[in-house]
Amino acid sequence: MTIDKFQLNDFTIQLGDVREMHGFDGIIGSDFFLVNKLIIDFENMAVRKN
């Protein structure tokens, strides 16, 4: 899985249809961010490495 320039190999994903019911393409869990030591900067709308 790759988000922007951050990549995680051997990552288990669960597929499902959330667009029709919830209006978005998917959910990224906190486990992805914890394993990659990423921080979501909501003020600047960016993801950065810790």
Overview of the structural elements:
The protein is an alpha+beta fold. Helices cover 22% and strands 24% of the residues. The protein is built from two helices and four strands, in the order ββααββ. The strands form two sheets. A two-stranded antiparallel sheet has the order 1-2. The mean pLDDT is 80.
Summarize, please.
Helices cover 22% and strands 24% of the residues. It has helices spanning 19-22, 30-36, and strands at residues 2-3, 6-7, 38-41, 46-49.
Ordered list of secondary-structure elements with their pairings:
Layout: E1 2-3, E2 6-7, H1 19-22, H2 30-36, E3 38-41, E4 46-49
Antiparallel strand pairs: 1-2, 3-4
Main sheet: strand order: 1-2
Percent range for β-strand residues: 15-25%
Unreliable runs, pLDDT <50, ≥5 residues? none
Rg, please?
12 Å
Estimated helix fraction: 10-25%
**Tally of strands:** 4
Count of DSSP-assigned helices: 2
The biggest beta sheet is recorded as: 2 strands, antiparallel
Order of helices and strands: EEHHEE
What form results from the Cα inertia axes? globular
Mean pLDDT: 80
Class from helix and strand fractions: alpha+beta
For the termini, the CA-CA separation is: 19 Å
